[in-house]
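Lab notebook, page 48
Experiment: co-folding of the full assembly
Goal: obtain a model of how the components sit together before planning crosslinking
Operator: M.T.
Materials (sequences as entered):
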Amino acid sequence: MQMKVYDYPGFPNPERVRIAAAEKGVLGNIEFITIDIPSGEGRKPEFLAKSPLGTVPLLELNDGTCISECTAISEYLDGLRGTPTLTGVVPRDRAVIHMMQRRSEALIVDAIGAYFHHATPGFGPLIETNQIPAWGEAGLQRTLLGMRYFDKILSKQSYLNATSFSMADISLFTGIEFAQTLKIAIPKACAALVEYCERLKERPSFAARISRAGSDTGLGWRGNQAEKPL
Ligand SMILES: N[C@@H](CCC(=O)N[C@@H](CS)C(=O)NCC(=O)O)C(=O)O
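Observation: model returned without errors.
Model output:
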């Protein structure tokens, strides 16, 4: 089955879908179409008709169905082949994975996103027309709180759902890697979280990401020159 995914490579939400697709072995079934977010392509009527919030990633099926939100896209991909491995099968696992997915978004992916959009030049002047720096700084504080929270969880277990890898791990990892791109380091005390990120990087599916870690964001923005003090 062929599918289209509209994305903007190297940003955390598109990365989540690339890794999920690689985990499920369906990368080869996807045509990736770049939407140039900084130049405003995501806000054009043609794209808004598919993705009303103007965000990527967006999955488009052959019948024209458009699915946005990484969680929904991951659910779809997970159901395509074999036993679901990313979203759980039994009620207990499904519930824990969804809980951890939401926490990964609220405390890391969305929080560092708020920092990026409001406390840095973000996607540039065309897109960032309503910046609230204090909201960005609050996002940074939430990210750091989140890192400490997840470190505590991961000091007792291998993955966010105990012993099984899931979409929640993909979300947490990509958010943290994006923070590092913005020169926000994992606090030194969070050894379990550091080890977990190093371990996840070794999964073959993580090679599917087009990470900007260690480089700039591609927008002429190199984050803070020094790592933010914690
Ligand atoms: N909750 C959404 C978030 C999607 C999102 O914010 N994507 C960013 C790229 S990482 C985007 O498209 N931003 C466009 C904009 O800010 O106008 C998801 O899970 O897919």
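Interpretation: Residues 217-226 have pLDDT under 50 and may be disordered.
Next step: discuss with group before ordering constructs.
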